[in-house]
Each structure stands twice: as structure tokens, then as C-alpha cells.
Amino acid sequence: MLKIIAATDFSEASKHALRFIINATKDLEREIVVVNGIHLEGPPPASMLSSIIDSLKTKAYFSYQELSEEMMNEFGENTPIRFHAEVGHPPHRMIERVANEENADMIVLGMKGLTDMERVFLGSVAASTAMHSKFPVMIVPAECQIYPIEHIVDATDLYQDETEFNLVMRFADLFNSRVSMLHVCQEYDEAEKERIDMLNGALAGRIGKRDVKYVSQVHEHVVDGIEKYTSEHPTDLLMVFTHKRLFYEKLFNPSLAKELAFESKVSLLILKSE
After folding, report:
1. Element (H or E) spanning 245, and its range?
2. What is the pTM of this model?
3. Number of neighbouring beta carbons within 10 Å of residue 35
4. Architecture of the CATH domain 2-140
5. Which fold is adopted by the domain 151-271?
6. What is the pLDDT along the chain (274 residues), one digit of tens a residue?
7. Is the peptide bond before 90 cis (omega within 30 degrees of 0)?
8. CB contact at 8 A, 226 and 155
9. Which member of 100, 126, 216, 229 has the lowest number of beta carbons within 10 Å of its beta carbon?
10. Which long-range contacts (CB under 8 A, 24 or more apart) does 57-62 make?
């Protein structure tokens, strides 16, 4: 059974992420644990700590009851979700702790981009979770459409090892998706073409009937090239591996003009490479 941790602050962005993953996994046997992180603004007197935490957990539970009712009305009463309120700090450690306790397969977070302050806060939670978590982390932009995951784009440098390739195929099998293994290059020369043709030729014995192909996008900047490709080829999920440090930092660099991590309409699945 697929075990999913869906982090929530009960905002519309986190609700949207929950809707996205419920819909994307509707044909799978799964359980979704909705996690709300509770942290205190300052250390209260020890005599008050327990009662304050109980009060905050009760408030969070009532918020979850409203959220649960919304999801049940939309997706049916048998939607397998349950609630967990976690106390601690920082947020990404709370999320990781619950994911460990639940032996999770994936963490899902919502993302929105409004004011500079909100970008800094939300970006730090999402980026910290993705950077430090040993689990696959899916970040769902508030603007993305809620569709089945039919097309996955994997950002690759064409030298992806077998472990990473198999992990991409695992998610392709999970969602019954076709896959585009995307390489962004500054120019599509004969060497690039030969490399792509060779890789596509080698796929036949590795993927069975799964629709997988290597593709190129010409662009001076990797992130902008990915954005261009996903805008021209309807994409339901973009996958990246965190070991590509320079690429990963570009994704979350707030100085980027397009700010892909905040502005993209494509959900992003970030995986930890061995």
C-alpha cells in the first residue's frame, strides 16, 4: 500500500496539493496522512506548556474536520485520509519525523508565490524539506491543474545511472504514465543527436511496453529550457534528482526571473539520489 504524507497549514495552497494527490492516486491502494505542524512562537512557562499544546492540537483537529469533510464531499466518503498533529520545529523536521514513523513512500506539499515574505517562508519550508528529506518530495503549485499524471518529464543530463532510471520507471509504473527524459542543451548538434538516438535505441530492452523516450530542448539556461518544454508539451509531473546541486539550487533561487519553483504550473517531484 502506498503511504503518503500530505503537509498542511489548512491554506488553499495545501488543500490544492491534497486534492492533487488524492486525484492522482485514486486508482491505487493508498493511505494519506494529513500532517499539521504546530510550533510555538516562544517558550511558555513549563506549567502552561501541556495545556497550550493540547489547545493548539484541538484547534488543528477541528480545522482538519472541516478539511476532511471537503475532501469526502469531493472524492467520496471512502477517501483514505487521516490526521496527525506534530509539535516541534523547524517544519521540515516535523514532516520528516512523521514520514519516518509512518514509513512513508512520498511527502506532498503545496506551493504558492505571492509576496516576497511569503516566497521566503514557503520556499524555505519546501526547499528544506526536499533538500533534507530521504523521501521523494512532491511540490504542487497552487496554479497547476488537477489531472491524472499521464505524462512525466524527467530532467536528465543523459548520464543518469541505473538506480535513478529505475526510480523514474517506478513512478511511471505507479501512475501508468508515459515518460520524456528531457535534456536541455545549448545547441542540438550531431553529437547530441547521436547520443539521443543511441539512448532511445537502448530503451527497447529496458522498458517493455512503457512509453519512454529521450528528448532534447535547446536553450541557453537549463531551468528556462525545462519551462519551455513543459509549456509546449503538456506535463503533469516534472522529476529532478537533488544530487545535481547546481541545478537544484537554480530551481529554488529566488533571483531567477521565472522563479520556476514558485511560478510553474507543473508539479515537481524531487528525489534523493544515492
Report:
1. helix 245-251
2. 0.87
3. 24
4. 3-Layer(aba) Sandwich (3.40)
5. Rossmann fold (3.40.50)
6. 999 999 999 989 899 999 999 999 999 999 999 999 877 665 555 655 677 788 888 899 999 999 999 999 999 999 999 999 988 778 888 999 999 999 999 999 988 754 444 444 445 677 778 778 899 999 998 888 899 999 999 988 887 888 889 999 999 999 999 999 999 988 888 888 898 999 998 887 777 778 999 999 999 888 888 889 999 999 999 998 876 554 544 454 434 323 455 556 789 898 877 6
7. yes
8. yes
9. 100
10. 57/85, 57/87, 60/36, 60/85, 61/85
Alpha carbons 259 and 173: distance in angstroms, whole number = 30
Query: What does the alpha-carbon distance between residue 66 and residue 34 come to, in Å, rounded to a whole number?
Result: 13
Ranges of each domain in the chain: 2-140, 151-271
Decide: 266 and 230 in contact? Cβ < 8 Å.
yes
The pLDDT, as a whole number, for residue 41 is 60
Same fold, 2-140 and 151-271: yes
